[in-house]
Design a protein that fits this description.
Oligomer: single chain
Shape: globular
Strand content: over 45%
Helix content: under 10%
Pfam families: Tocopherol_cycl
Number of domains: 1
InterPro entries: Tocopherol_cyclase
Order of helices and strands: EEEEEEEEEEEEEEEEEEEEEE
Distance between the termini: 41 Å
GO molecular function, one term: tocopherol cyclase activity
Number of strands: 22
Largest sheet: 10 strands, antiparallel
Length: about 325
């Protein structure tokens, strides 16, 4: 039996070399309940001229606003991705596999279209932007067909995390992690690394944590928090402390090295090349403290299993997926 995890659709429209448009399906073979296995990717690519993006069945003539619900179609010779009335539909042919399904309404990061960056995403000089469209959309239905064997998997449950990036290029080194606890309405997402502004390079992060049962809706970014982070891509762990005005978050993430993929494709200004590794078997430990006068009071502690953990660029082990200069 095969176990399948995630699909990503990426597109760039700058100068050569190719590929400029890429879709990846990450999967694990012979997945069992108590064991973990390495991630593999199946990829399909095409030229930028073969990508067609429409908004409300017409050409794209302006950037979207923050508040309006998305209504667009992303189409290539190998696949289709649509967003209409808060329902996502997709159908992709990866050669050996066909993956299609429908996803329900989003659970947004914040009100009025706010994403992890908050007001920062309005700054024109930021080299890369990160937006989370949905923290935990419900799966309506999905189907995955192994064309070679005829084996078919059909399901009607699960949760889906959806996000996007845009800008000039990814950082020289970065970490991304995300996870949900379906039964407890707990979720988190974080991204960060080496951010270059002109001649200055700093380490910055964006992080959000949700625990509805404890009324915790925490969002931190440069400007409202300080960060202290360490990482080791050769061991497969990452730790960060977030110092906010009213709260602190201590988060550690780790995954067995055997569960990580080989280098996966990541975007550069010239196109896509192998730039990062991922595991979807990470164990996340999150502790939240509330500031009380001169002390800290622990108000939440959670373990979120089967989370995503990605090391990219120079943050991979021995820089084996180091990005070229953009």
């Amino acid at each position: 039996m095969d176990c399948y995890l995630v699909m990503s659709c990426l597109s760039r429209q700058q100068i050569p070399p190719i590929p400029k448009v890429l879709a990846s399906l990450l999967h694990r073979n012979h997945c069992t309940k108590n064991n973990t296995y390495k991630l593999y990717s199946s990829n399909v690519v095409c030229l930028a001229k073969d990508l067609n993006v429409t908004v409300r069945n017409g050409p794209v003539i302006k950037n979207p606003d923050d508040k309006s619900p998305p209504h667009f179609t992303w189409q290539t010779p190998f696949g289709l991705f649509t967003q209409t009335n808060n329902i996502t539909t997709f159908h992709f042919d990866f050669g050996k596999y066909i993956f299609r399904g429908r996803i329900g309404p989003p659970v947004p990061w914040g009100p009025n279209g706010e994403g992890p960056e908050g007001w920062i995403d309005k700054l024109p000089f930021i080299p890369l932007h990160w937006f989370v469209f949905s923290l935990r959309s419900p799966v309506i239905q999905y189907e995955l067909l192994n064309v070679q064997t005829g084996h078919r998997i059909e399901r009607t449950n699960g949760v889906v995390h959806m996000e996007k990036n845009w800008g000039n290029s990814f950082p020289k080194g970065w970490i991304w992690s995300q996870g949900v606890s379906s039964h407890d309405n707990i979720s988190f997402a974080l991204s960060g690394g080496l951010v270059s502004l002109g001649e200055i390079t700093t380490t910055q992060f964006l992080i959000g944590y949700r625990n509805l049962a404890k009324n915790l809706n925490l969002n931190y970014r440069p400007g409202n928090a300080k960060f202290s982070a360490t990482h080791n891509g050769c061991v497969g762990w990452f730790k960060i402390k977030v110092y906010g005005l009213l709260h602190e978050i201590h988060l550690s993430a780790s995954a067995d090295l055997s569960t990580f993929s080989d280098c996966l494709y990541g975007p550069e200004i010239t196109g896509f090349r192998q730039a990062c590794i991922e595991s979807y078997d990470a164990i996340i430990n999150i502790t939240v403290f509330k500031r009380e006068f001169l002390s800290l009071k622990k108000i939440d502690s959670q373990i979120i299993k089967l989370s995503a953990l990605e090391f990219g660029g120079t943050y991979t082990c021995d820089k084996r997926c180091k990005k070229g200069e953009s």
